[in-house]
Q: What sequence folds into this?
């Protein structure tokens, strides 16, 4: 079961594309945080989703919100992904799947590969006090998040 609205957002530290540790709940304290969990870099729908948030980043920033992408990809894959699509928000690597388990969004058998686990496509908005104010989780990796609902949740 995934983290629900009203719950305290789980704390975590993951490495970014330069292998530096990042702790979003501390680093962005006092801001709304939009956590974008995506199954994998360079995988079609993930590309569209991250580019959509890239293109909307000014609007999120104007609402005192920080966007953060999280996948099980390596820091190197996320770095290539960020460079290829000019993604200008942090991408974090949950390569050991601890955070996707904390958030209850582990997807098993991605791409029909038995034993291959990734993050379900999910969006969590964490308010300035560290409480989850919005949660959306898809059981189907090919479904994009409801972008308008996410923006409304941040506003």
A:
């Amino acid at each position: 079961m995934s983290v629900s609205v009203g719950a305290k957002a789980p704390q975590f530290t993951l490495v970014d594309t330069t292998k530096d540790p990042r702790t979003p709940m501390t680093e962005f304290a006092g801001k709304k945080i939009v956590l974008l969990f995506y199954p994998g870099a360079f995988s079609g729908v993930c590309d569209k989703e991250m580019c959509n948030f890239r293109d909307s980043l000014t609007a999120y920033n104007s609402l005192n919100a920080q966007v953060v992408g999280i996948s099980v990809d390596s820091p190197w894959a996320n770095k290539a992904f960020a460079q290829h699509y000019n993604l200008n928000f942090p991408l974090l690597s949950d390569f050991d799947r601890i955070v996707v388990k904390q958030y209850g969004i582990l997807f098993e058998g991605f791409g029909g590969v038995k034993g291959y686990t990734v993050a379900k496509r999910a969006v969590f908005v964490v308010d300035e006090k560290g409480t989850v104010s919005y949660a959306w989780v898809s059981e189907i990796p090919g479904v994009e998040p409801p972008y308008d609902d996410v923006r409304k949740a941040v506003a």
In short: DSSP finds six helices and nine strands in the chain. Strands lie at 14-15, 21-22, 32-37, 65-71, 91-93, 106-108, 117-119, 122-126, 132-137. The CA atoms of residues 59 and 151 lie 9 Å apart.
